[in-house]
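User: I'm new to structure prediction. If I give you an amino acid sequence, what do you actually give back? Let's try with this one:
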Amino acid sequence: MNYTKAIFTSILLVSGVLFAQNSNNQYIPIEKVSLVESTIIPNYIEYDHQNAPDLNDLDDLLSPYLKGKTGLGLRLLKTEHDQLGLVHYRYIQTYLNTDIEFAELMVHTKNSKILSMNGKMIAEYPANTTTNLTESAALNAALNSVGATSYKWQIPSEEAHLKLELNDENASYFPQGELVYINPSLEYNANGFRLAYRFNIYAQEPMSRAEIYVDAVNGEIIFRNEQIHHTNVTGTANTAYSGVRSIPTDSVNSSLFRLRSSEGGKTINTYNLNLSTNYGSATDFTDTDNIWNNVNAQKDEYATDAHWGASETYDYFLNVHGRNSINNNGFPLNSYIHSSDPQSGSSSYVNAFWDGQRMTYGDGNSSYSPLVALDIAGHEISHGLTTFTANLVYAAESGALNESFSDIFGTAIEFFARPSRANWLIGEDIGSAFRSMSNPLQFGDPDTRLGPSWQNVVGCVPSSQNDQCGVHGNSGVQNKWFYLLTMGGSGTNGIGNAYSVRGTGIDTASAVAFRNLTVYLGRNSNYDDARFFAIKSAVDLYGACTPQVASVTNAWHAVGVGSPYVPTTISDFSAIDTAECKAPFYVNFLNNSTNGLTYFWDFGDGTNSTARTPTHLYQNLGNYDVKLKVDGGACGVDSLEKLNYILVDTNIVCEVLLANGSNATQTTCSGKLYDSGGSTGAYNPNETGTITIAPVGAASVSLNFIMFDVEAGTTGTNCNYDNLQIFDGNSTNASLIGTYCNNNLPSTITSTTGAITLKFTSDPGVELNGFEIDWSCTYPSSSPSPDFIVNASKSCSGEISFEDKTTGAPTSWSWDFGDGNSSNLQNPVHTYNNNGTYTVKLISSNSFGPDSVSKSALFTVNRPLPAISQNDTFCLNQNIRLTANGVGDIKWYKSQNGGTALFNGNVFNTAAVNKDTSFWVEDYIEAPLQSVGPTSNTIGSGNNFTGNQYLIFDVLQPIKLQRVTVFSGMGQTRTIELRDGNGNVLQSKYLYVSSGMQFIFLDFNIQPGTNYQLGLSSGSSVDFYRNDGGVTFPYTIPNMVSIKTSSASSNPGGYYYYFYDWKVKAIDCSSQRIEVKAFIDSTCNSTGIEQLSTNSADFSIYPNPAKNKITILTSTNSTNYTIEVFNKVGELVLTTYSKNTNSNQIDVSSLSNGVYFVKVISQNAQKVKSVVVLK
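Assistant: Good question. You get back a string of structure tokens that encode the predicted 3D arrangement of the chain. For your 1175 residues, that looks like this:
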């Protein structure tokens, strides 16, 4: 029987992390994974708490999803601690350090261990990464779209007030542009992300505040995120809505009080806008006796309602949820009363809003009194809580959640501060309610997702005309959920589903809602996310399989989001991959059980596990039954057995996908390869995927194309859109066999080696059915034919790189370098210590046996003369000081080969050692820098250019390309790439390039080769100068490098692109390292040879060893010295004096052979060195 094993990209990604791997190559069991359709990265991952990974392993845990996309990163936004002892880290995803809007990750930890993480991110690079627009041009486009007659930053009093309000002298309303990536559809398809400038623009007349996103290429306004979200002594206030209440006030003097307070970190301020919208001209509300009964025609009595409401809101979040104001850091709650209508200027303004910094309240009209009721004040301030936590986008379902959370906490605050009059209406105190949480349909709002009055959000473009796609109306869904969770209820919802919910009370309901908002939800969360993480929040707070979890789940079902709670234990499991064509076979089991507490797995091969979600290794071929027993405690016990569930059989055809990124090397002799769309779908846009097929011991690999459908190129056989490249070897650095598409179809292709590499590239626009390829291999019928080459014919460093060129499917290599050293690597690098020529032998072997080849005088080693140095002897506990001299830089090492230099310089000082110790010293001669290419852009005509072109050059000996000069238009980050002739990136440098002439330090080490490319990455904005006149290729340094031409499609020799005045150098030369020993004499008596202070004058002794006389040379001749000589047991044997000279000769002819110690004593210090007398 012939089985087929199908693998799909998204499944592979899930499978790849059910058993995550950290930086220590340890596997971390994953408890639970949740996927959403909008992103292939799971939106929730929970780890086994007993084996939770370390926070430092976060990058490693994410790497399976990002598949080598090192340009994607994370930037930490904030860190928060909760009442359960957990620490939560909120990150935003970045591409090359530029934020990706609404792509974020929340990591939940305890004791620096990751318990879970959630969020929505992208796994591919954004498709559109260029910018042609300056920040100022983008700002003009943004301002034109707003169309205001005046802005906050144009009003000096507003600017001054903002500085005072934020206590920041640099604060300003002036919008600063920030480049970000954003998908205007709010989806997570990387192809839809565009580079844009984001501006926060606060208009004064007519008033508006929004984040405006301007396409960085064409200036189009692609998204707008509204920021205005509508709707210390103790004084006594006669509030208009809540009766007599105590309020915090500020005593200016004994007869003047104002509505301000900053006692104990609680800052509550309330100001009078005097029927304007200018915050800078706002004034204080005052009272003479601190009994606030300020009833007047201006309705000043309502100011105390706003002030008391803000105070109670602060107390609610602190006392109920342990949060210090809305930012958890004492954020001042500033309220502004008596606002005029920001659009018309009318005094009749029926609205209240949060603008990202403060609350503003209108005075209402003939039908509505001022909008400062307690639930409205709590509502508006809770918008601030959302800003500092989930920061939900104010559009569609995320915007509906934003509004609903404000209703939830506004109502919870009402029950907290004024329980006797609390109810489920919003705004009832101001004359007439405008929303109901218990019956949203009463005011035309839906109480069920997709039910009556639901505003469709699919394909909706947010605008003020459609309420930003229903943010106020659709908030009724979560409002009704909160009501049912608090009070309970039963019935049939708006889409015909029966429900029954047991009430938990408002404290439990608000605790779940608060944790959901502040811990789990992100900027682009929807109702599905809200349900999932509300249940997770209930589990965090009250435990699994509890009445609270049941109520949370059933309340969401009641409003049309998700299924009802299942009150029993259900055993269920699956495995993404259940069949394999070879053993061993890792199977990642996904536990889909409900309400389980403990688990017992029987894998059918005699082994078992109690992990929640195990990964199991099947060692042998076979067909295996799998059984899972789940114990849910009070919820019951359940078992599930799947017969013949796992199959490991060589009759299965191995199928793989050529997915985006780097794919695993295939080592089987036969198999089937699909594009990323698999057997039924089209490939994806914006892909660059590679895969190598390298069966062990194969002589060749053949590709038979069963189906091929790849977008055609422009003309002839040119495949310049989507294409499949095939290389004759184990990487894209191998020889290119061909590039194929629908106007250059491939036939059967066979490699000349035992490996073949495929690279598929697609662009956006047209995605076809791709390809289906069967591969097969042949094995050698004879021993291999050994051959090899080297990277240089001369080496002054001793380093030679060997490259194996053996044909005939070798599987092992044995090198004899001719100097007594050997290696079993295929392509070794060896350092020769001695000058000369060598005979190198390579033995290559395969299953038929070995064969060998020897080559003589293939290269010459000509290293500089070694450094000059000598051994020295030191006392135990005496610091070591060794010297050496040479032509170049002296470098000291711990070993003869390899390693990092301990010190650079002629004199090497190090701490005392307790035994004889060897050091190694080399003479390092740096090669001189040479210039190639035009030294400036004045060679002829030219201009700044934005096309992605490059220079083509050859390298004739190993070199370092240290630096180039560019002439940049706009200052921004760019990636400079060194590529081979096939366009594969060999090395790159990511850096910020300012405008004007700039030096770029590359430090690229380049081996000999032809048709190298030097250019910018496809994601970089170019805007560099290039010449289109005066160009005279080639630019050459003989026997080193030659810049031959450019990549221009027509007249390539007439253009010089971007990189001027190359600074290159040959490989630096280094001598053989010589050994220098520090001998330790343990018999030294420290009585006369103690260590000396560091401020003593230095001196040297020569010759050393000495025969009859030694010369003492001090660093200065301005001091009188005493010079004493001791033998090794500390006995004084000679004494002399030095006066105003730095050179003193001492006769030691009377001393016998041995080690002696010379002490030089000045007025304030002394120093000792050793000398050897040897006759």
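You can read the tokens as a compact description of the fold. Here is one thing that stands out. Residues 1-19, 23-27, 1085-1096 have pLDDT under 50 and may be disordered.
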